[in-house]
Structure prediction request, 142 residues.
Amino acid sequence: MRIAIDTNVLIAAVTRPGGTSARIVQTWLDGRLEVVASTATIREVELVLGAGWLARMVSPEVIEVLLEALRTRSVFIEQPPRILDLRLKDAGDLRLVEAAVAGGARHIVTTDREFLRARAYADVEFVTPAEFERLLGETGGQ
Prediction:
């Protein structure tokens, strides 16, 4: 199954290693999921994890492992086509939707309320980590 993972879920994965988000990321790292990423989405992860309280809370080694996985183990979309008919407050969220659509993701896994209220765009459904974990259990990752 191919998905895109919002930065907030990646943050949860590295700050709460036993949580749902961490299990989803581990499923990806184990090769049972494909994750779509783009230059813009990786840059957002770098900026968010490298600044403020998160930079003090998460070791540089953990951040680098995550970034390296995004760079080398994702379905990388260099320059996804712009989406003009979706309005989101955060430009980073729009970049994630663009990468997800261009990369053929079935879901964006997020805790962002704006995403979750929208529910979907094109063929990409927006789901919480708990919803996605349930879907994964039901489909066996297909």
The CA atoms of residues 49 and 55 lie 6 Å apart.
